[in-house]
Amino acid sequence: MKTDGTVGRTLAVLDLVAGFGRAVRFGELLPVSGLPKATLYRFLQTLTNQGMLAYDDERQSYMPGLRLVRLAHAAWAQSSLAPVAAPYLDALSRKTGQTLHLAQLDQGMVLYVDKRNAARPIEMFSHSGKVGPAFCTGVGKAMLAYLDPEPLEAAIARQSFHRFTKTTLTNAADLRAELVTIRARGFAWDNEEHEPGIRCIAAPILSASGRVLGALSITAGHGAEHEALETYAPLIVETADQIAKAAATWRFPEQIREETR
Q: Which is the CATH superfamily of the domain at 80-259?
């Protein structure tokens, strides 16, 4: 668990509770928190008192609180590409009938911020609000390929390089080589690297200055859908460019932080 002072450790506990994806009891949190019992209890009490967590007396369990929900909605509206991109995702969904994902980078990881289901939905890992690896996903690699050297190295250092499938890239050198190819080509592939049977084509969403705003992907399952993916390359690149232009007046969170320093 992070040790960035009391605030950092408290937020880490909040992340831990949210990461369970369900109501969680104190006894489940304690062994994975790395904190003494009294410290964990104090942090949970603080988060509950502040409305960031809610406590269910009957089940004796913790879950994200309504204040956190309110903040999440505000963050989605102000810091997420989703509201800007929504009409373009809708149009692309109608044209392709495939599963679409909109994602942004969050500390070297992929944060899925919006999704459109296919005419025949595919069972897969990602959905809005889910965090996934960057090194083995189409949207992740599309964004990594266009980062400047310093943030790229920081992002690569955060990758686990866990082998999910037989086609997963498992080291930084192979990833860097593929990122060069992606940048030259203008779009990225996920060739069943994160989930067996799931293939994606993805394009970066870049500001006029080349800043990485996010990425957009089209996903297909087995069979003919795989073969059709490459035909979508011009369409997904065009849609990514349309989103980027629509986002021209949107203040990217990193830019806001720089301006307030």
A: GAF domain (3.30.450.40)
1-50: pLDDT as tens digits: 445 688 999 999 998 998 898 999 999 999 999 999 999 999 999 999 99
In degrees to the nearest 10, what's the CA dihedral of 132, 136, 139, 143? 100
CATH architecture of the domain with range 5-70: Orthogonal Bundle (1.10)
Q: Which helix (H) or strand (E) holds 64?
A: strand 61-64
Query: CA 65 to CA 104: how far, in whole Å?
Result: 24
CB–CB of 190/202 below 8 Å?
Answer: yes
> How far lies 170's CA from each of 143, 154, 252, in Å?
18, 17, 31
pLDDT value at 125 more than 80: no
Q: What is the pLDDT of residue 174?
A: 97
The amino acid sitting at 71 is L
Q: What's the angle, vertex CA 175, arms to CA 107 and CA 117, rounded to 5?
A: 65
Q: Which of 40-49, 113-122, 204-213 has the lowest mean pLDDT?
A: 113-122
Q: Distance (Å, rounded) from C-alpha 152 to C-alpha 165?
A: 24
| Phi, psi at 207, each rounded to 5° | -70, 170
Q: Which two tokens stand for residue 59?
A: 């089940």
pTM of the model: 0.73
E strand intervals along 71-198: 99-106, 109-116, 131-132, 188-191
Looking at every residue in the chain, the average pLDDT score rounds to 88
